[in-house]
Amino acid sequence: MLIHPMPDPIALQLGPVAIHWYGLMYVLAFAMFIALGRVRIKQPHIAAQGWKKEDLDDMLFYGMLGVVIGGRMGEVLFYRPGYFFANPIEIFKVWHGGMSFHGGFLGVLIAMAVWARKSGRNLLDVYDFIAPLVPLGYAAGRLGNFINAELPGRVAGDQTLPWAMLWPDTNYPLWPNPVFLQGLRHPSPIYQLLIDGLLVFAILWLYARKERPRLAVGATYTLLYGCARFFTEYFRTPDWETTVLGMPITSGQVLSLPMVAGALAMLAWAYTVKQKGRAPISR
């Protein structure tokens, strides 16, 4: 039997300033965005489009705003509107965790649209460029969720599952006498780290190494994530759940279905519509 390690969510205390592991995971995500982006810029089909390191640094600033603002507002509006509207000050306490991927996804799309307009880039080329840089950052965020003991999994049907674990109830203090949720549970943040993050990254990075039709890479990421998230939701305790055609469907699955449908439409467009060439941008 495994027990959640319940690490201290504060990684470093500097007087009155507390540095949380959750925040450090975002720093790691942004660092990986830059590192992978510099590798991607050197790929021949990307270099031919005139991408530069300065573009990457500039996009990161806009992307950070999109992730943080969109992710938090997604959590507020999609998952816990009643709680946050009753406690509005909690909206700003992002170090407590609670960031919606779907909200962050929309936030980044908007931020990149603003950057594309500012820089004179084709918006679809921007989406194609950044898509392979996203999944590892997502994986880092899920590691932060695990450290914070957020997003508990469902009770494992097989209580002898080797990696099922006792999960702390964060409504109570974790020390010195933690209270645990009932039953051994799937470590769902780890599932999402591995499947929605690392597996999606590996597939997409290989796919994006060669030139693809405009929007195909961005659409492929959207499709892969939507499908992966729909699957891993079966192991996660849902924030809310409804019934469609007699079948239960979770909040994450409801939000992922439009991603899958939209991605399929975008892929059909990318591979069937005649597109103009992607000439290097002149500045």
Give the SSE string. Answer: EEEHHHHHHHEHHEEH
Strand fraction equals 5-15%
Helix content: 55-70%
What is the domain total for the residues?
A: 1
Number-wise, the strands total 6
User: Looking at the structure, what is the overall shape?
Assistant: globular
Number of helices: 10
- Strand arrangement across the biggest beta sheet: 1-4
Instruction: Characterize the largest beta sheet: strand count, sense, and whether it forms a barrel.
Output: 2 strands, parallel
The low-confidence runs, each spanning 5 or more residues with pLDDT under 50, are none
Mean pLDDT: 90
Which structural class matches the secondary elements?
A: mainly alpha
* End-to-end distance: 60 Å
Rg from Cα: 20 Å
Describe this structure in words.
The protein has one domain. The chain is about 55% helix and about 5% strand. It contains 10 helices and 6 strands, in the order βββαααααααβααββα. β5 (about 240-245) and β6 form a beta hairpin. It is globular and about 60 Å long. The chain starts with a strand and ends in an 11-residue tail after the last helix. Pfam families: LGT.
Key words describing this protein structure:
6 strands, 283 residues
Summarize the structure.
This protein has 283 residues and is mainly alpha-helical. Helices cover 56% and strands 7% of the residues.
Protein topology:
Elements: E1 2-3, E2 10-14, E3 17-20, H1 21-41, H2 44-47, H3 53-79, H4 81-86, H5 101-119, H6 123-130, H7 135-147, E4 165-166, H8 188-208, H9 216-232, E5 241-244, E6 247-250, H10 251-272
Parallel strand pairs: 1-4
Antiparallel strand pairs: 2-3, 5-6
GO molecular function, one term: phosphatidylglycerol-prolipoprotein diacylglyceryl transferase activity
Membrane topology: Multi-pass membrane protein
EC number: 2.5.1.145
